[in-house]
Amino acid sequence: MITFGLNYTVKKESIEPFLEIAQKVLGLMDSIEGHVATKLYNDVNKSSSYLIYSEWETQENFTAFMRSQAFKDVQNMSVDMLEERPKHQIYETKKMH
Question: What proportion of the chain, given as a percentage, has pLDDT over 70?
């Protein structure tokens, strides 16, 4: 399983539109092949900081999503709402013996 974290710092005046876009995207994620779950978190110490956390069945499913036009469209839509470039983290879940 692959876990992906997108860290966003949103301009204060853009928080509401960002959340509207994020909710739409989260609703669409369930229909994407290999998608397991996605959650949106807000930093309690910094109200403009958000994390979108998603789980994927395989690296291939995740890579296909990252290369999709839908992902690129969302990135382009939200770019003006952000204080800085998003930071991405990818984690792989491995079974322990």
Answer: 99
- Asked whether the beta carbons of 82 and 22 are under 8 A apart, the reply is no
Residue 52's nearest CA partner among 73, 33, 80, 71 is 71
Alpha-carbon torsion (15, 17, 23, 29), positive or negative: negative
**DSSP assignments along the chain, one per residue:** -EEEEEEEEB-GGGHHHHHHHHHHHHHHHTTSTTEEEEEEEE-TT-TTEEEEEEEES-HHHHHHHHTSHHHHHHHHHHGGGBSS--EEEEEE-----
Model confidence, pTM: 0.81
